[in-house]
Write a structure and sequence with these properties.
The protein has 274 residues and is mostly helical. 81% of the residues lie in helices and 0% in strands. The chain has a single domain, classed as MetI-like (MetI-like fold, Orthogonal Bundle). The protein contains twelve helices and no strands.
Length: 274
């Protein structure tokens, strides 16, 4: 009975992995297809990559996507981290109020947020384009940074900043050399989430963009109405770096841990030899 349950569990996991990863593998394989067909592989070719790099519209979309994602990540990480640090030293009422407000962009449906921002920018008379898209991305990225940083701040000793000041550090030194290094994992996690959310966003971006500014998500949406295998090439270029980064993030800590174990083992052997 236990063996049958174990086999069924493995089959279920295999089916789930196939469901998640076969479409990605399919996209990568057909990005090298020689024909326009998305169902029949006619031979290996780089023609769709050449077409993608020669397409000015597609290259502009990649440029705007990366530019907005990097700027939104940088701004939201700084603002979100400073806000979280400020809240950690605020009274309970203010902290609760700001935390609840911070949760609204996450809980609110994206289409509602997109329409709200569209009306807000129209009311202010701001012309839609790069600036409006950047402001929108910063707005919905900040809550994710704060949610990543605040648990790290809660785990800190509340007197650590006062101790640094008592030892002669300035407020800026206490912030940059004492508090920030302690919460760096939370800051890094928040920055990665912010970059991913900005890079991948479609709904909000669709409502706040204009003047020919579009990201990859909007471009793929417009291209999906007519079959264009260049989408596969574009998707592959996005998938491969993300996969490499994920592999490195998971492998490097393991390699580091093994090296530390080897050093400890060697140190113990040398100590015993003496």
């Amino acid at each position: 009975m236990k063996k049958s349950k174990g086999i069924l569990g493995k089959i279920f996991i295999a089916l789930m992995l196939a469901f998640f990863y076969l479409p990605i593998i399919y996209t990568i394989v057909f990005s090298f297809n020689d024909s326009r067909s998305l169902t029949k592989f006619a031979g290996f070719s780089l023609r769709w990559y050449e077409k993608m790099f020669s397409d000015a519209v597609m290259m502009d979309a990649i440029f705007y996507t990366i530019l907005i994602a990097v700027l939104a990540t940088a701004i939201s990480t700084v603002v979100g981290t400073i806000t979280a640090i400020g809240l950690s030293h605020s009274n309970k009422i203010l902290k609760t109020l700001v935390t609840q407000i911070n949760d609204l962009p996450i809980m609110n449906p994206e289409i509602v947020t997109g329409i709200g921002l569209l009306m807000f920018f129209s009311l202010l008379g701001i012309e839609k384009g790069l600036v409006t898209m950047l402001l929108a991305h910063v707005m919905f990225c900040i809550p994710y940074v704060m949610l990543s940083v605040m648990p790290k701040l809660r785990s800190l000793d509340p007197n650590i900043a006062d101790a640094a000041l008592d030892l002669g550090a300035t407020p800026w030194q206490a912030l940059t050399k004492v508090i920030v290094p302690q919460i760096m994992p939370g800051i890094a996690a928040g920055a990665l989430i912010a970059f991913t959310m900005s890079f991948d966003d479609f709904i909000i971006s669709y409502f706040v963009t204009g003047n020919g500014v579009q990201n990859i998500s909007i471009l793929v949406y417009t291209m999906s109405k007519r079959i264009n295998p260049s989408i596969n090439a574009l998707s592959t270029i996005i998938i491969i770096p993300v996969t490499v980064v994920l592999i490195l993030i998971n492998i490097l800590p393991i390699i580091k841990e093994k090296r530390e174990k080897k050093k400890l083992k060697k140190a113990r052997e040398e100590a015993l030899a003496e």
